[in-house]
Please model this.
Amino acid sequence: MASQASIPKGTRDFLPLVMIKRNFIFQTIQEIFLLHGYLPIETPAMETLSTLMGKYGEEGDRLLFRILNSGLPPVIETKPLKEITEKGLRYDLTVPFARFVVQHRNEINFPFKRYQIQPVWRGDRPQKGRYREFYQCDIDVIGSNALLNEIELLNIIHLIFKKLNINITLKINNRKILAGIAEVIGQANKLTDITVAIDKIEKIGIEKVTEELLAKGIPSTAIEKLKPILTLQGNSEERLAFLETFLINSETGQKGIVEVRYLFEFLNSVKSPVLQELELDTSLARGLNYYTGAIIEVKANDVAIGSICGGGRYDDLTGIFGMPNTSGVGVSFGADRIFDVMEQLNLFPENLQTTVPVMFVNFGENESRQAFLLQQELLKNNISSIIFPSAAKLKKQFDYANKQHIPFVAIIGDKEMENHTVSVKNMITGEQEMIEQTKFAAFFR
Amino acid sequence: MASQASIPKGTRDFLPLVMIKRNFIFQTIQEIFLLHGYLPIETPAMETLSTLMGKYGEEGDRLLFRILNSGLPPVIETKPLKEITEKGLRYDLTVPFARFVVQHRNEINFPFKRYQIQPVWRGDRPQKGRYREFYQCDIDVIGSNALLNEIELLNIIHLIFKKLNINITLKINNRKILAGIAEVIGQANKLTDITVAIDKIEKIGIEKVTEELLAKGIPSTAIEKLKPILTLQGNSEERLAFLETFLINSETGQKGIVEVRYLFEFLNSVKSPVLQELELDTSLARGLNYYTGAIIEVKANDVAIGSICGGGRYDDLTGIFGMPNTSGVGVSFGADRIFDVMEQLNLFPENLQTTVPVMFVNFGENESRQAFLLQQELLKNNISSIIFPSAAKLKKQFDYANKQHIPFVAIIGDKEMENHTVSVKNMITGEQEMIEQTKFAAFFR
Model:
């Protein structure tokens, strides 16, 4: 019986045209990473469960794809999950990178700048724009706490989206500001609940956020104090000025302000175009507890699709693998969402096509040998071509060329064999001209 | 407690230098695929078990990595394996490609030429040169039974290994010749046992092969008839001449000879350099039952490492997914073994390095702003650079540049800030010169 031709839900096949567009995104990103001295690494698709578990919260543990140990019997008799599975599929690139840095600490020089472009897997419920297999493109600098790294990341984000023609808003915040806010409203120990609630302001509005905060046990007096933050307006400078007063009694909060100010002042002093995109957003938290300084998120201005890039600074990510006090900062570009944005806004260059410039028509064995020889000349000039593999009916061969959008068809029939020529038909204009075989490659060059 | 920093056995991390060398291989392969009109596709890492099971023999089924269904309880109570796992990791690229072709038959034009470069996973016992995660680089033409496709594949193999500087032997055989051999010794129904035994001749010698054939129930009279094949000597032309007589009574065998002759004659008539590498090897079987015509295998001449590329023609691969009579032919390049060959023979180009041409020394905030501005000029000229992120001690910064093999260090101190210059130190010669900032990018261009 034939197996059904289908794939697991939430996964995708990529056909050639989509592949070529995706590769355009990857190449653009990668070029700019390389220009800034970030070097490629790759880690295995599988990590041990001890590397992955407990790093992404309870939900993350649940969404990990676990791999069954080899050599199990066909029937499993009452076993704890952990006895039949020791490995899982990579859930993001950050935790494997932390593991990598610790494992290879003696082989790399710090500060270590790496990029990594690989798929990750999550057992999320599949829905529009959310897949169970998707690519992340990460850059991180590890082993340096200098804010110049944040500047570089902001500049890289700017350069990449400029090159991709996507208009963006580049939101930044700082975990120390969030900690300061929790502190001055007397709820330092509720930092996570507060940031999660703040994070939802845009989506669910101030009333629901208030309800949520109350439900988490935050007293209404504290929530009252928080209100100015929840309704904070104005440009980044005005927000910073407000925070300076609001956080006057929090040393941590003040440190956060100094860090954010540094970024704005640096960019101002070099008249950076990043400033047009950059805004301080105190509601930005990104849910990830490992951030300790800058928090960064990018949204596309012209499509509502959620964040297309995000990251931040983490002062102790490698600590979980036994290497403390190693500060890092990085961002991750979401290639799948960037693809969706570019597709919706029609931003891919016109010349990304799944075609070759030339197809040789096949009239039979002798003629195909001549076509083969001419193809070798094209190869020497880096010109792609195909030879139709069989001497099928001419109509079939021309139909194929048309369907594949091949602009030139090269014809070598009796007459051309005799004269040592090739007839070249322009499939768009319909014009046809005869070229000497010795001048064929030059014609396309 | 800190997790241990380690990865599952049989898997690997790739550090930057190795990545750059691997990418060189992938790019070389990919360029030549594209020049012949092969287009990229990708399929998901996970396939349903019904797609994978039964396609790779019993051993294959055992070596598949299965993925646990989501949402299982922490303790599994007596369950058949198939109830807790419905998906598996890709075991090769051929079966997913067959599934892809059937699933997308209405979206693609035949003959369809695709390439695919992705990792595959097998639960083999890890050993030197054998990994549980490794990359395959496959090309296939599907929907054409013309032998011109085989010619093209042989030529592509030749071009790729020439470009990689690897001396190869390109062995070919034909399944119809193997079937003919089984037929004329009166053992048509033992084709698989015979080819498996023939396949081992080089490794275990004629006596052991004879034992194995006897054990499989092949009578000694038949084995006696097989002897001339097992000891076949001479060049490809002599072997073909022998086979023509030997297989005189097998129609299938004669067809195989005609196919092999076609390849040699075509290549002869175009004076192809492939001929220097090509040899007919009747002991070549490659164990895969789905081959129906050409069988192809490549060995490196200067390193003993097994096959580095292989493939063949299959007339009914898509039949298992309900689309019969679709002939295809393809080969797979083993990137990991090719890497090992190139590393052992020192074949990678010298200029593959993990370095950038320029590092800016960091003397503090003002100076780093100036460095940032000059870096933007380099970026406009596609020149990579890094700015040391903090104003660390000079010795530390120069040590870093040395360890990273950075050839030029750009110094912007007090004097240079004042004069609008940059001092550029050549880290190899030790020479240092002062350049106007306006001429800095031009210096590196």
Observations:
- Chain A has a mean pLDDT of 94.
- The first strand of chain A starts at residue 39 and ends at 40.
- Chain A has three domains: 9-164, 168-300, 355-444.
- The first helix of chain A runs from residue 16 to 35.
